[in-house]
Structure formats: C-alpha cells, structure tokens
Design goal:
The structure is a single chain. With about 375 residues, the chain is an alpha/beta fold. About 35% of the residues lie in helices and about 15% in strands. The protein is built from 13 helices and eleven strands. The protein has helices at about 5-10, 40-45, 55-70, 80-90, 105-120, 160-170, 180-185, 220-230, 240-250, 250-270, 290-295, 310-320, 370-385; strands at about 75, 95-100, 120-125, 140-150, 175, 195-200, 215, 275-280, 300-305, 335-340, 360. The strands form two sheets. The chain has a seven-stranded mixed sheet, sandwiched between helices. Strands 8-9-11-10 form a four-stranded antiparallel sheet, covered by helices on one side. Helix 4 runs parallel beside helix 5 and helix 12 packs antiparallel against helix 13. The termini are far apart. The structure holds pyridoxal-5'-phosphate (PLP). Pyridoxal-5'-phosphate binds near residues 84, 177 and 201.
C-alpha cells in the first residue's frame, strides 16, 4: 500500500524489528569495518566497507530523504553548499556550458564564478522567470540547467516543467535547489528535475544545530552522482545524522505552523505604511503566485519585504531592539529571524534594485501575536528615528 506523505515522514528509514524493537535507528560510529574473509574483502561483498562510504545510520537518512523527494537514491554532504558543489562537479567538465539561475543562493554563485570558471566551465546566468524561453539559451555543450525555486531573497518561482522540457530536449540535465519548499511542499521529480538538492541544515533538521546537505538523483543521474560524491570524499558525522532523523519526524507539523505564521505575518506586513511590498509566493500579489499554486502544496516560513526608502539609522533602530526576531544567517529552525539583504553583488541577469531595503524574514514557531507586536514596536522605532 502506498503511504501518504505524513505517514512516510514517520516511517521511512526505520526498522525497529531489526534493532531489538528500538523505535529509532542506532548511531553507528566507525571508520574501519571488518570483513570476515579474504573473498568478502576482495569482492566488497558486504553492505558496508568503510565509514566514509556510509553506515546503517546514514542509510536510514538517505532512504528517508530519497523517499520524501521521490527520487531514486540520496547521498549526504557536510553542508547544503557542499551538496550544490558536489552535484555540479559530478555532472560538469571542462568545456561544458552551465545555465545558472540569477536568483541562486549567493555562495552557489561564488562557486560558479571561482572554481567552475577556473576549471573551464562556461557559466551563464539567466533570469529566473525565463520559463520555456530557456530554449533560446541552450547550446550544444549545455550540460546542466541549474534552478532554485523560489529564488534566494527575491523568491521568484520558476516554471520548472517548462524549463525541464526545453533542457531535456537539448540533452541537458536539470538540477533543482529545493531547500525553500523542502520535499514536503514540492516534488522535484514530478516536475522534471533530474537531481534535487536540500540544505538539510534548514527545515529537515529544523533545530538550528546541524550543518548538512543532500543530493537526490533519479536513476539515470545516480551513477555519476554517487561516483562524484565518493571521489570528492564527502561524508557526514553519525551524531549529526541522528539529530536530523530526530528532527525530520516532525517536519509536517512544523512546516504547517511555519506556513500559517508566515502567511499571517506577510498579510499584516502588506498593509503596513512602512512596507513598499511583500514578496511571498503564497500571496496573490506575488507575480508567480499562479505557478506556486499549480506546483507547490504549501509555503515555508521564509519570505522578504521591501521597506519604503529609509535611513540606515532608522533601519538600525528597528532591527537592534527586536525581542523575538534574531539577526543571523541560515533559517528553518524553530525560531524567528530577520536579516537585511544586499543583493547588489549577487544579481547580473536581473535588476538588484527593488526600490528600498530588503529584509528577509523567517517565521518561527512562536505565538504569531507576539511576533506581530515585536514588528509593530520595531516600525514605531523606525518611524521615530527616520524623523
Ligand atoms: C542555506 C542554503 C544553502 C546552503 O546550505 P548550508 O547548509 O548553509 O551550506 C543552499 N541553498 C539554499 C537555497 C539555502 O538557503
């Protein structure tokens, strides 16, 4: 019987019967794994051969992520960024052309502009809303079209099916950074992706205490993904995997609340005189709202607002005294965050000018009324300081 998603979140990667009845998989620490005979060693004829290549603990998480994303198999990396770089290095070589979305996570761009360019990969940025128009940019040597939807900070939702159709017709692979929605709210392989990346650091972990990434591949791209991951020596620590397995079991209930609070904050912010506009894919005012509605089953708690132009002093007055919104990078934990974002240096194919300061907000699991009161007091300080 095919299980529903919320059931899969609870059951995947667990086998109590094989573990003396314990509900959670055991944490295997290990580098050396012994082989009983010369023949078994020579033929690698056992499931685990060396700690770097995985343990029953990592397999439990790999199977969980693969099952939720809906892909063939998953490998784990020590950060979300390492998942991005490992996926790209596994499928690109000197002389290849890479189409990279302009709204990609900043450090993804940095990797392309440094390591990939230095190694002779031709990197071209494209506007996230290009859709089927990507056909006009595909070249005979285009190996990968990289997508991230919605984009970092500016949350453009990409028409993944249209992009994938054009890319596949030209023989290029489609990689998606699926971190914003998590596999709970977007199914990458049903929308044309060949490879899906998660910064597990965010919602899958969910508690702001682990760095980790995942690359999930379809059957066709799996061998090269596994080979690249192995060649680069990527592996993760068993205690971190345990924390992620623990966090993942509540993914569904956490996300529902992040979504609800995020939308409530976004709607309230949309009516504030200090705010020029709100960028949240689940609001009808978002330019890609119809694509989000067509392809996604929910919204996470991360969105941006653009303030009406104000002085830096006024912005500091607002941000410096918030009680519940912390200022820090990353997101996806249980706590609310707010960070001013400067996208000047991380856009080349679209305009970085949004007409005022951009604040990225993560709606945490606190009571929404406390969060609204905190923001309201912040706006009062901003207005007073703006004089
Ligand atoms: C945070 C993030 C990453 C990188 O994850 P780390 O674990 O911080 O390296 C990659 N992509 C997106 C969209 C992210 O938000």
């Amino acid at each position: 019987m095919k299980q529903k998603q919320d059931t899969l979140i609870v059951t995947l990667g667990r086998d109590p019967e094989a573990n003396f009845g314990f509900v959670n998989p055991p944490v295997y620490h290990g580098s050396t794994i012994l082989h009983p005979t010369y023949r078994v060693l020579k033929e690698r004829a056992q499931p685990f051969t060396y700690g770097r290549r995985g343990t029953p603990t990592t397999v439990a998480l790999q199977e969980t992520v693969a099952g939720l994303e809906g892909g063939h198999k998953t490998v784990l990396t020590p950060s979300g960024l390492a998942a991005v770089t490992t996926a790209l290095l596994s499928h690109l070589k000197t002389g290849d052309h890479l189409l990279m979305v302009d709204s990609a996570y900043g450090p993804t761009r940095h990797f392309c502009d440094t390591v990939l360019k230095r190694n002779g990969v031709e990197v071209q940025y494209y506007a996230p809303r290009i859709g089927a128009g990507i056909a006009g940019l595909l070249k005979p040597n285009t190996a990968v079209v990289f997508t991230e939807s919605p984009g970092s900070v500016t949350f453009e939702v990409q028409d993944l099916p249209a992009i994938a159709k054009a890319a596949h017709a030209a023989g290029a692979l489609v990689i998606l950074d699926n971190t914003w929605a998590s596999p709970a709210f977007f199914k990458p392989f049903e929308h044309g992706a060949d490879i899906s990346i998660q910064a597990i650091t965010k919602y899958l972990c969910g508690h702001s205490d682990v760095m980790m990434g995942a690359i999930t591949a379809n059957e066709a791209t799996w061998p090269a993904t596994l080979a690249g991951h192995g060649a680069l020596g990527q592996c993760v620590a068993p205690d971190d995997v345990y924390l992620v397995l623990r966090g993942i079991r509540t993914l569904s209930v956490r996300l529902e609340r992040h979504m609800k609070t995020g939308i409530a904050l976004a709607r309230w912010l949309e009516a504030r005189p200090e705010v020029a506009h709100v960028i949240h894919p689940a609001l009808p005012s978002h330019p890609d709202h119809s694509i989000w509605k067509r392809d996604f089953t929910g919204a996470s708690g991360l969105f941006s607002i653009v303030l009406k132009p104000c002085s830096d002093k006024a912005l500091a007055a607002m941000l410096d005294h918030l009680e519940f919104f912390g200022m820090g990078f990353s997101w996806g934990g249980f706590e609310s965050l707010i960070v001013p974002q400067d996208i000047e240096k991380i856009r080349t194919a679209t305009s970085p000018d949004h007409g005022g300061p951009i604040l990225r907000i993560h709606a945490g699991l606190e009571d929404p009324a406390d969060l609204l009161a905190d923001l309201e007091a912040g706006f009062t300080r901003l207005t007073m300081a703006n004089g």
